[in-house]
Structures are given as C-alpha cells and as structure tokens.
Amino acid sequence: MAQSPAHGTDHHDHHHAAGHHDPQDIKLLGFWIFLVTDVILFATLFATFIVLRGGTDGFETGAELFNMTGVIAETFLLLTSSFTSGLAVLAMHQNKVKPMITWLVVTGLLGAGFLALELIEFVELVHEGATLQTSAYWSSFFTLVGTHGVHVTIGIGWMISIIIQILRRGLNSDTKGKVTVFSLYWHFLDAVWIFLLSIVYLMEVM
C-alpha cells in the first residue's frame, strides 16, 4: 500500500513526459485533418468537372483552346519545385540552415513561375472568349484549376513566413516541424496537379 504514492508520481511523470511532445503532435494532427478536408474539396471539384465537361453550351472546349506547351512548362516547374522542397527537408535534417533556406527560396521561385504561366494561360483563354460565365465546362475548369492556383499562392506565402521565422529564431523543433509540414503540403499540391494534368488537360486533348 505504501508504494501507491510513488506509483502515482511515476504515472504523473510519465504523463508529463508524454505531454512534452504534444504541441508538435497536435499541429501535425491538425495538418493531416486539414489535408483530408482539402482532398475532399479537390475530389468534389474534380467530380464536378467530370460531370460538367459535356456542358459546353455550343462553345469550344479545352481541346481546341489549350496551349499544351505552356501546360507542360507549368508541370515541369511544379515537379521540379517538389524535388527542391525535398532537398530543403534533407538539408534541414542535416542542420544545414543556409542550403535549406536556399532550396526553399528556389522552391518558391519555381512555384511563382508556375503561377505566372497559369495566369498567362487564363488571360489567353479569356481573350479567346472562355470565362467563368461562358459555359458549365469553363466555369468548372476555372474553379478547379484556380483553386489549385490559390493553394500554390498560399503555399508560397506560408513558406516566406517560415523562412523569416528561421532567420529570426534559427532551427528548432518548432521551425523544423513547420518545414516538414510545408513540404508535405507542397507534395500534396504536386499530386493534385498530376491529376489535373491527366483529367483536365491530357484526357481533353486526346
């Protein structure tokens, strides 16, 4: 019986030690929940596009208007940026701050290049007469591709804020966690783009 207080203390210490890692675990869990909701969002937009792709209202579809050279260039930039974000995480694990920040900056620049090409593509399509109001096909196209573009923009802004935090506070468990989560988010956007490329562009052109 006399041992029960010690057992209670031990239980308390164990609980305290377990609670020590909680903030990062909770943040990671929160991120995964966010990612699942994002997957649902994109799945809904893809389903909407597939359902509405026949609703052209007599207007041309992407098969006639897409500039595939630009789309391939966008794909190249985004795939490369996914690779460089991986290199940033690799440098982080080796505690190499300068190379890590360099790779993050390169990732951001490639992402910005992707957005610039996407913007040019949208302007060209609008010039051809394809807008959100043109037909069900084009409204679903702009909503789906545009939502992905907004996510890339948010990702770049988020990455800049992480770089600023690292420059101020250095690499610690908090900033390392943020770089890891950002990299996961960026790879997710890459995966979504592969689906976009296949379903929206390639299937349409073929």
From TrEMBL:
Transmembrane segments: 29-52, 72-93, 100-120, 140-167, 179-203
Cellular localisation: Cell membrane
Sorted UniProt keywords: Cell membrane, Membrane, Oxidoreductase, Transmembrane, Transmembrane helix
Membrane topology: Multi-pass membrane protein
Family matches, as SUPFAM superfamilies: Cytochrome c oxidase subunit III-like
The Heme-copper oxidase subunit III family profile domain, residue ranges: 29-205
Gene3D superfamilies linked to this entry: Cytochrome c oxidase, subunit III, four-helix bundle
Xref: Pfam families: COX3
UniProt superkingdom: Bacteria
PANTHER family documented for this protein: CYTOCHROME BO(3) UBIQUINOL OXIDASE SUBUNIT 3, CYTOCHROME C OXIDASE SUBUNIT III
The family this protein is said to belong to: Belongs to the cytochrome c oxidase subunit 3 family.
Protein name: Cytochrome (Ubi)quinol oxidase subunit III
Lineage: Bacteria, Bacillati, Bacillota, Bacilli, Bacillales
